[in-house]
Design brief:
The structure is a single chain. This protein is of the alpha/beta class and 321 residues long. The chain folds into two domains: 130 residues, Rossmann fold; 178 residues, 3-Layer(aba) Sandwich (Rossmann fold). The strands form two sheets. The protein has a seven-stranded parallel beta sheet, sandwiched between helices. Strand 4, helix 4 and strand 5 form a beta-alpha-beta unit. Helix 5 crosses helix 7. The longest helix has 19 residues.
C-alpha cells in the first residue's frame, strides 16, 4: 500500500527521506507558481505545507484524492480547516515542534531591542564608534507580561526568570488552572498596565485578530516594549506605528506581520525603535528537522491506516473513514 504526497514548501531533507522510507511517493515542489500548484494538487492523497503555501478552499476542492494535510509547524492559519473538514480531509499539525526555537528568538529580539544591537552594528560597520549613542537597559528586575501561556509562553517564562524578570501571564483558555512556576495570573488590562515588556504568544483567530490595538497601547506603561513572535494580525500595525512614533512605546521587536512579506514602505520598518525579522521563529536546523520528520510520520500513519495523531479536525477523519 502506498500513497502520493505533495510537499509544496521547502522542508528539511530528513522530511523527504522519512516519507520515502514509509513507502510514500513524493512530489516535491518547494518553489512553484500558482498554476503549477493548481496542477499538482489533483493527484495528491497527502499534502505537506509550511507557512508559505496557502491551502485554500479552492485548492482543497481541486484535489479529489486528498485525504490528509500536514502542517509542518504549529499554526494552521494558512490552511482552510473548515473547507478541509467539509471534504472529510484530515488536518494535522506539530504543536510543540518549534517551541524552543520561538522562545529563543523571542529573547534574541528582545535583547537586540533593549541593547540596540542592530543600530550599533550598522553604525560600527559605517566606521563610527558611538558608545554613548546606544545606552541600553537591563532585563533583570523588569516585568514581562505574557499574552498566551501555552507551550511557547511557558518556555519564554522559564527563560525570563533566568534573566531575573518578574513574569505575569494572561490566557483565558487556562482560566482556573494553576499558573506555571513563577508566573502570576492576571487579566489583560492588569498585565498591560504593569508590564515593562509585553510578549505575544497566541494563535491568530477571530478572537485574537486585532487583540492589541490603540486602546491597549494607551493602557501600557509609557516606555514599555512589545514583542510579537506569534502571528501577524494579532497587533494593529497602524496603531503600533503611531504608539512608537509618539513615544508611548519605547520599541517593538517583530517576527511576524499581517501581510508577509510586508509591502514596500511599511511604516514599522522605517522606525529606528523597531527590530524585525522575516518570520524566523521556527527557522532553526533542529526545529525544521524535528517538525518535518514528525509530520512525515503522522501523515504516513494516517494514509497507511496506522492511526491519527495531533489532528486539528479529527471529526473529518472519522466521517471519511
Amino acid at each position: 500500500m502506498s500513497a502520493r504526497v505533495l510537499v509544496s514548501d521547502a522542508v528539511a531533507p530528513a522530511t523527504l527521506e522519512a516519507l520515502k522510507a514509509a513507502g510514500l511517493e513524493v512530489n516535491y515542489l518547494p518553489k512553484h507558481t500558482p498554476e503549477e500548484l493548481r496542477a499538482a494538487v489533483p493527484e495528491a492523497e497527502g499534502w505537506i505545507v509550511r507557512s508559505a503555501t496557502k491551502a485554500t478552499a479552492e485548492l482543497i476542492e481541486a484535489a479529489p484524492k486528498l485525504r490528509a494535510i500536514g502542517r509542518a509547524g504549529a499554526g494552521v492559519d494558512n490552511v482552510d480547516v473548515a473547507a478541509a473538514t467539509r471534504r472529510g480531509v484530515l488536518v494535522m499539525n506539530v504543536p510543540g515542534g518549534s517551541t524552543l526555537a520561538v522562545a529563543e528568538l523571542t529573547f534574541a529580539l528582545l535583547l537586540a531591542l533593549v541593547r540596540h544591537v542592530s543600530r550599533a552594528h550598522a553604525s560600527l560597520r559605517e566606521g563610527r564608534w558611538e558608545k554613548s549613542a546606544f545606552l541600553g537597559t537591563q532585563l533583570s528586575g523588569k516585568t514581562l507580561g505574557l499574552v498566551g501561556v501555552g507551550r511557547i509562553g511557558r518556555a519564554v517564562a522559564a527563560r525570563a526568570q533566568a534573566f531575573g524578570m518578574q513574569v505575569l501571564g494572561c490566557d483565558p483558555k487556562l482560566a482556573g488552572s494553576p499558573p506555571p512556576p513563577g508566573v502570576e495570573w492576571v487579566e489583560l488590562d492588569a498585565l498591560l498596565t504593569r508590564a515593562d515588556v509585553v510578549s505575544l504568544h497566541v494563535p491568530l483567530s477571530p478572537q485574537t485578530r486585532g487583540l492589541i490595538g490603540a486602546a491597549q497601547f494607551a493602557r501600557m506603561k509609557p516606555g514599555a516594549l512589545l514583542v510579537d513572535c506569534a502571528r501577524g494580525g494579532v497587533v494593529d500595525e497602524a496603531a503600533l506605528a503611531e504608539a512608537l512614533r509618539s513615544g508611548r512605546l519605547a520599541g517593538a521587536a517583530l517576527d511576524v506581520f499581517e501581510t508577509e512579506p510586508p509591502p514596500a514602505g511599511h511604516p514599522l520598518l522605517g522606525l529606528p525603535n523597531v527590530v524585525a525579522t522575516p518570520h524566523l521563529g521556527a527557522s532553526t536546523v533542529e526545529a525544521q528537522e524535528g517538525v518535518g520528520v514528525t509530520i512525515a510520520a503522522q501523515l504516513a500513519d494516517a494514509l497507511l491506516g496506522r492511526g491519527v495523531r495531533d489532528a486539528v479536525n479529527p471529526e473529518a477523519w472519522k466521517r471519511s473513514s
